[in-house]
Protein: SAM-dependent methyltransferase
Organism: Planococcus kocurii
Amino acid sequence: MKTIVTTAYRPTSSALAWANRVSAELEILQVPRNKRSIDRMQEDEQADLLVCLKERLEFYPMGKTEPFFFHPNSAAFRTKRPLEQDPLIEVAGLVPGDSFLDCTLGLASDSIVASQRVGQRGRVVGCESHPVLAYVVAQGLQQYSNMPHLEEAMRRIEVVSCQAVSFLQTLPADSIDVIYMDPMFTEEITEASNFTPLRGTADRGQLTVQWVAEAKRVARKTVVLKAHFRSQDFERFGFIRRMRPNTKFHYGVISIEPESKQ
Ligand SMILES: C[S@@+](CC[C@H](N)C(=O)[O-])C[C@H]1O[C@@H](n2cnc3c(N)ncnc32)[C@H](O)[C@@H]1O
């Protein structure tokens, strides 16, 4: 499905200029709104819509009238608790100064938590294969300003719009401390979240032998997988599953032993 960019019903000159910029950067068509509703415009243009409002970008995949937009989501409350007790941070063994590659950036909630943990001396790169999602999240990470305690962590995240395996192949061996993957669950999830409008649009690709092999080559400390508690991917790809009672998802970890790389 193609994506086009437009504005609100009555665009300000800055929203129009922004839509121009988005059109050029994403190499997509800019189409005048002409006071059309979202569903009318999707129907007329047969396209997903990216809408430049005054303060944020909204993405309406075809057939969805609820927008997707950037928000720190779970990172907002997770970063209010001691970070070393966050299940992802703990299982990854992530410490200040580490580098962290999130192969499946999505809304960037996990990356924000990781970025808060690694701090100024650390580095966080987020890889997302859906180009429009990568763009909306990258823009939000740079501009979102309602949570001052997370600003520095959000601004630090470098977003790459790319397939995870292709990106990993560009990286030298042993160059990133922790590599993380959280592919879309294949099981039905009933809880609504900010991600709900993207369910049919995001990349539903699953873990592969090549993906795990590349992650192990590039990782210095750990490779971490998040998956549904019923997923067999932990065992299939050699992750040690960390049981989390009463949760819908588990984490699994592969610890990198330097001697295993020789
Ligand atoms: C479940 S979401 C990740 C949520 C994320 N952990 C967060 O905290 O918001 C999975 C995301 O990974 C992306 N994705 C799936 N397969 C990918 C791949 N092979 N390379 C890069 N991104 C991928 C999807 O488009 C989706 O946005």
